[in-house]
Design goal:
single chain; 774 residues; alpha/beta; 8-stranded mixed sheet; 33 strands; 22% strand; Hexose-6-phosphate dehydrogenase (glucose 1-dehydrogenase)
Length: 774
């Protein structure tokens, strides 16, 4: 039987009122009342008095029998004798009552009832604990009612527990936080993630602290091969579709539970494990160090019966397709010196082959076994935070014996396991591990309810931590909103269909799909096509093939330039067009001669290079940080001089022009890559850009109609001196522009791109089928 323990935190005497809003719901029935009963059993006779209210929308006549049906089923804590439990349970039932909580008047009546009880019994109020076990859309309204009608006196505390989901993305989470913070103080809000109450998760930081001397030398990129954070479920979403179809697996599990586990494993260790402020700051620092993730870093799936369940439970027509993923695999990287290059595989799904959850650190092997491969020194080196279920069936921390013997994480309530079942855990028999496990299994909600009572905030989600997590996950969620998930049959029949692999930093399924949501259609019939466009060469293909072809052409141009001149000068434009190309160059073309390549900018926004709106920041994040290129081969535009941006007197364009003339033979770049805006501008040369007096200049300051308005750009003089110019146009939104340009002969002042006419070089248009065909 699961049970709670007093953690010895400092207590103040007085009366505590507990109100579970949604007190007859599923969560309350399964976990919350049991947790509060165990809290009462632990605290009874220790100075506090209690009253418990189950609140819901139903009338008292309807709600009271529902509540007492729940309370009669409560299990006794194991440390209580049968006689003692019967007495404590009878007291608990006597102290518990149902109260309708629907209107403001209902909350006022509750507050009056609490005051009246305290007055009659002549006792001091210690605090009020509200647990909101209701849908998130009701939080703001209930918080307002609590704030306006149910606050205790100033000398007593108020604690309000909130269940996930805390928003749907960054913007909704910010909106919810704004509403709640208008009614409640941050120290009054306890955002619960029940994973933080799991015994193994709560011991990740203490385990790292206890074994710091032995872990520090190996807890880094030189020794860790990969990290896996996994939550697999056999259950489907049937019966929960109304909630689940709005959220999906990433919002339901990865953004919160698994991100918290990852953070505890990899954040800097706080000097004091009981300092919640230091823990929060270290969490925020770690989340800020995560590299951006998008569609190329993830795969998604959906179990085959899901769409039918959506149609049935949401009353959708038979031709309705839900894109909500029930499976996701994401690979995350950390941008710091300690963990750089270590892939973090994070995955979860419903309707899989087993129920299991764990976090695993797999270390590199530096041993070559000539003989006896079964020797323990030849086997995998790993640390596993095993959360439960699976082959082991109990929560534990496992450390392979070829690493070191760990210190016991908590001598009072944890034990070392010395009797081994005949099972394997992640490739090793139990006898190859040092194993630590809780003496008595305890339910997560029980632990967290105890922490709320004692005011321990280190086991809960802060507003800053919540928004930081959403800031990381929202771009991926937005990108996946239009992606068809791979359909899988469910259970053992999935076979290898959901296996995924890492190629560079890109993630893909390892095997071809057997089942598809939609037919690929005519896409598959097109390969790379060559032709003419505006009297110049044109290459056209679907987006991925087009980018691969452009990357290949760049490689050939680089090899030719280096053979002839010893170096390759490549100028890259900003905007959205080159993003896919930069990623392909960074992650796929390992043979690219970066050591002999110079990177230049075609244009730059007048913002600091460290800001997200900077073109150079984009080139850095997508390309430079992933490749080995000498730092003196990188030439950012000098838009930020003397602590100001793009001021004429600072001479930024002149400085860049001098640098070009110094390094680039005849100021003729080997390759300039351009994009085209929907208005026909290229680089940062717009329809209204005045160039009459700048015919000899290579670099100028310009004005954009869009913010930020100030820009620095190569001129058409510089562009048209290049040996090769590539113009990349992608996406259906550019189809009308492509059609317009095809009908224009020669130059048009309305479309600056038409002024790109290399004098002795080659112009090639790279246009994907979406832009070409619409």
């Amino acid at each position: 039987i699961l049970q709670c323990y007093n953690h010895g935190a400092k207590k103040s005497l007085g009366h505590v009122t507990v109100v579970i809003v949604g007190g007859t719901g599923d969560l309350a029935r399964k976990y919350l009342w049991q947790g509060f009963f165990q809290l009462y059993a632990d605290q009874v006779g220790k100075g506090h008095t209690f009253s418990f209210y189950g609140g819901a929308l139903s009338t008292t006549e309807k709600g009271t029998p529902l509540l007492f049906d729940i309370l009669k089923e409560l299990a006794c804590p194991a440390e209580l004798s049968v006689e003692r439990c019967a007495l404590v349970k009878d007291q608990f039932l006597h102290l518990s009552k149902y109260h309708q909580l629907k209107t403001t008047e209902d909350y006022e009546n509750l507050s009056q009832q609490i005051k009246q009880q305290l007055g009659q019994e002549g006792i001091i109020e210690a605090g009020r604990l509200f647990y909101l076990s209701v849908p998130a859309f009701a939080y703001a309204d209930i918080a307002e009612k609590i704030n306006n009608t149910c606050r205790p006196p100033s000398e007593a505390w108020l604690r309000v527990v909130l269940e996930k989901p805390f928003g749907h993305n960054l913007y909704s989470a910010q909106a919810l936080d704004k509403k709640l913070s208008g009614q409640l103080k941050e120290e009054e809000m306890y955002r619960i993630d029940h994973y933080l109450g799991k015994q193994v998760v709560s011991k990740i930081l203490p385990f790292r602290k206890e074994n710091k001397k032995l872990l520090d030398p190996i807890w880094n990129k030189h020794h860790i091969e990969r990290i896996e954070i996994v939550l697999k479920e056999t259950l489907d979403a049937k019966g929960r579709i109304q909630f689940y179809d709005q959220y999906g697996v990433i919002r339901d599990v990865l953004q919160n539970h698994l991100t918290e586990v990852m953070t505890l494993m990899l954040m800097n260790l706080p000097a004091n494990l009981s300092n919640s402020e230091e823990i929060l700051q270290n969490k925020l620092n770690f989340l800020a160090s995560l590299q951006h993730v998008d569609n190329s870093n993830a795969v998604v799936g959906q179990y085959q019966a899901y769409n039918g369940e959506v149609q049935e439970e949401l009353n959708k027509t038979k031709d309705y397709f839900s894109l909500t993923p029930t499976f996701a695999g994401v690979v995350i990287h950390v941008d710091n010196a300690q963990y750089e290059g270590i892939p973090i595989f994070m995955t979860s799904g419903k309707a899989l082959d087993e129920r299991v959850s764990y976090a695993r650190v797999l270390f590199k092997s530096n041993v070559f076994c000539v003989q006896d491969p079964n020797n323990v020194q030849c086997k995998s080196k790993q640390i596993i935070f095993y959360l439960g279920h699976g082959t082991l069936q109990y929560p534990a921390i496992l450390l392979s014996k070829n690493l070191f013997k760990p210190e016991l994480v908590s001598s009072g309530d944890w034990k070392e396991v010395t009797e081994y079942k005949d099972v394997n855990v992640l490739g090793l028999p139990l006898s190859d591990y040092y194993i630590q496990s809780p003496v008595t299994p305890r339910e997560a909600y029980c632990e967290l309810i105890s922490h709320v009572f004692f005011g321990r905030k280190d086991s809960f989600i802060s507003a800053e931590g919540l928004l930081a997590s959403w800031e990381f996950w929202t771009p991926l969620l937005e990108g996946l909103s239009r992606v068809f998930p791979r359909v899988y049959p469910g259970g053992v029949d999935n076979g290898n269909l959901l296996n995924f692999q890492l190629k560079g930093h890109q993630v893909a399924f390892s095997h071809e799909a057997v089942v598809n949501v939609i037919n690929p259609g005519a896409e598959d019939n097109f390969q790379v096509m060559q032709g003419k466009y505006r009297s110049s060469e044109m290459v056209s293909a679907w987006a991925q093939e087009l980018v691969e072809r452009l990357a290949s052409d760049l490689l050939l141009a680089a090899e030719e330039a280096i053979r002839e001149e010893g170096q390759f000068h490549l100028a890259l434009s900003g905007g959205s067009s080159p993003v896919a190309l930069l990623r392909a160059l960074a992650l796929n073309l390992y043979t690219f001669p970066w050591r002999n390549t110079h990177i230049w900018q075609v244009d730059e926004r007048c913002v600091p290079h460290t800001e997200s709106g900077s073109n150079f920041r984009s080139i850095h994040d997508l390309l430079l940080q992933h490749i080995r290129i000498p730092y003196f081969n990188i030439h950012p535009m000098p838009v930020h001089l003397t602590q100001r941006l793009c001021v004429e007197e600072d001479g930024g364009p002149t400085l860049y022009e001098k640098e070009i003339k110094k390094h680039v033979n005849g100021s003729s770049f080997h390759y300039i890559l351009l994009g085209v805006g929907q208005d026909g501008h290229t680089a940062s040369l717009f329809q209204d850009t005045k160039l009459e007096n700048d015919e000899e200049n290579l670099v100028i300051l310009t004005e954009s109609p869009n913010k930020p308005h100030q820009r620095m750009s190569l001129t058409f003089t510089a562009i048209n001196r290049a040996r090769r110019v590539g113009v990349l146009i992608m996406g259906k939104s550019k189809h009308e522009l492509v059609s317009q340009l095809s009908r224009i002969k020669g130059e048009s002042s309305k479309y600056p791109i038409t002024k790109v006419q290399p004098k002795s070089g080659t112009l090639i248009w790279y246009i994907d089928y979406d832009a070409l065909l619409g």
